[in-house]
């Protein structure tokens, strides 16, 4: 793998003009409750409402002109689709976003608002991949995978860079793991900037393929149960898993109850809106899955896109 | 009246160690929608979840030692009670908070958590005042009224000072008006720091006594209809009205629908939690009650305490 800190630093320069440098927030009340010192990197305030534009923008602006002109494509039911559509618009190139026919209207509208072309498919992983391959064959567009692409991983790592630039003495950095794009970028960045830092990922127990794979030392596909953390339902990627094995210290799992309670606590205490996936690392602290007593812990709050008509505690 | 900018500057020094300097956030999307440039002063991130600790803390720390030792008292069903309890705890003096017997449990718990004594009364304005006078007669405590007290007004004005320190070229500053404590502090501070600024208050049409009084040039008591903006149900105070007449440029009113829609838009777009009262100025912009085209508009988001089980759009 060639994902290294130089690639992440280059990404930081490449995307700087197109993304927010998001704030790092703290809460005395959550510190008191946890026994540690928590620093929340607020990617819920990022463009598109999630960290995803970091990676998508880096990938789009890494393409040479001739390749870029043919456009980009991906399959995504979530924030990566919007992020890629936005990045393509910023570069002035076509974007083809394959989306399941049952996608939420708000997500369709977001992608459309950036002028991307939506290609509908059946709501299965296989149908998504087939439809995406078909688009690429017909248009010559470049696939920008939402987490297996190295430029995407490098871009996602810039959130951790900003966090460590602001708070240099972190003992631990935490993020959730789904496909592993954010985790790879975070781990490589954090270990380069602060070699003694612990990189700890958190995952819903109901979608614990990354944790099981990490323990087994080989990629395991698990049967997924439902998780409210919709951003983390995906399996960890193969290239991602290799990087995770090398750089990540621990992967912990959390209950659905803890995700919902943690999300609500952050809403009530910090007055910020985060989506269920973003609450997963904090849920691990609440469930005492890791010991953070006296430690300085950076947590990447990955996004804030929720349906306000269907909150998990309703 | 002796409320002047010197009092507000003195308040700023007095309370600096006890309150947050809250961030000023912006949103390109809301700017595009409104045609102006909006700067949101986030008092929803303030201690106690609202701007109220600014005034309460200033009032408590303005007392001489002998007076302070006898304690402070107020009647409040909302954030001022918690703010006063907290300020008294910081100074190490007793606080007596008169609260209606039907107060929300979360508010009772907040006041209790600061070690204040709660005195229950019937949920009418008269009962509150009688119970408070009784406490004061028995204990010698000093009344810290939630908006008629000048030290409270001076403290509330520090939010506008911080906002104008950060963004010096505001054309307009907006806040909601209930009793008028925040509005008085805001108006005096803003006109001192930037004499050509327009100070515009916003009020629910269903509780429009301040707007009517302002137009009539004399204090008018109106029959209140229900408003979702629970922080603004109170009548504007007499001392407040005098200051408002002198310093405020305009008071506009907004519909209940606009308050709810505006609140939801800010949640969805900015990913921050604000209470209905805090959405009232933005609602006035959405309803085109003022012309902000091309203007730089500071908006004080007054608080973020909401019951997540009973959101207005549920």
Structure description:
- The structure is a homodimer of 314-residue chains.
- Chain A is an alpha/beta fold.
- Chain A folds into two domains: 5-50 and 153-301, Rossmann fold (3-Layer(aba) Sandwich), CATH 3.40.50; 53-150, Rossmann fold (3-Layer(aba) Sandwich), CATH 3.40.50.1100.
- Helix content of chain A is 45%, strand content 15%.
- Chain A is built from 14 helices and ten strands.
- In chain A, the strands form two sheets. The first copy, chain A, has a six-stranded mixed sheet with strand order 1-2-10-7-8-9, sandwiched between helices.
- In chain A, α1 crosses α3, α3 packs across α8 (150-156) and α8 crosses α10.
- Chain A is globular.
- Chain A starts with a helix and ends in a 13-residue tail after the last strand.
- The interface between A and B is medium-sized, with 19 and 19 residues.
Main sheet: strand order of chain A? 1-2-10-7-8-9
Helicity level of chain A, as a percent range?
40-55%
Number of strands of chain A: 10
Radius of gyration of chain A from the CA trace? 18 Å
Average pLDDT rating of chain A? 96
Cα distance spanning the termini of chain A: 44 Å
Q: Helical stretch count of chain A?
A: 14
Residue ranges of chain A: pLDDT <50 for 5 or more in a row?
none
CATH architecture identity of the largest domain in chain A:
3-Layer(aba) Sandwich
User: What is the ordering of alpha helices and beta strands of chain A?
Assistant: HEHEHHEHEHEHEHHEHEHHEHHE
Strand content of chain A: 15-25%
